[in-house]
Amino acid sequence: MLTMDQALRAIAALEAAWTQDTEAIDALAGAGQGEEPLAAVVAEFVGEVLRGVALAVTGITDLPEGQQRAAVAEFKKGILADMLAAVAGTFQRWAISAGSDIRPTRDLTVAGLAAILGFAVEGVDNHDGVKELFDGMRAQAMARL
């Protein structure tokens, strides 16, 4: 699981992809000492978000805590969990090959945004839905303290 700072960095990169601000993505890609490359952080974050969205849309997150474990175990046996694992794995491998190279990092970030929006926001031009999604992701990231 990513730290709060890593999650916020990934969210900032995804927002930059949404606004097509390549300069912001480039700036975020400049990893400081000890920081993972942006591609790796975004890939991990995309996987986390997609798993969270899948659990929410299946109603698992609405279940009482005691029932969630059994529901998650059952979910993991299904095809959707396999598909999410394949998508997350693809992003992870893409991040490894991207390393610190900015062009594939930009491409991965744009593709990650598309994957998240495809699962989490209804309608491609739903600017309010996208803003609400980013606000929710930021709030969840801040809760990682």
Please write out the topology.
Layout: H1 4-18, H2 22-29, H3 38-57, H4 65-75, H5 79-98, H6 102-120, H7 127-142
Helix pairs in contact: 1-2, 1-3, 1-6, 1-7, 2-6, 3-5, 3-6, 5-6
Can you walk through the features of this model?
There is one protein chain. This protein is 75% helix and 0% strand. The two termini are 12 Å apart. It has one domain. The chain is globular. The chain has seven helices and no strands. Helix 1 packs antiparallel against helix 2 and helix 3 packs parallel to helix 6. It has 145 residues and is mainly α.
Strand tally is 0
Low-confidence stretches: none
Gap between N and C termini: 12 Å
Order of helices and strands: HHHHHHH
Number of helices: 7
Indicate the percent of residues in helices.
over 70%
The number of domains is: 1
Strand content: under 5%
Largest pleated sheet: none
The Cα radius of gyration reads: 15 Å
What's the shape? globular
Overall SS class: mainly alpha
> Mean pLDDT score, rounded?
94
Key words describing this protein structure:
about 140 residues, mainly alpha, about 0% strand
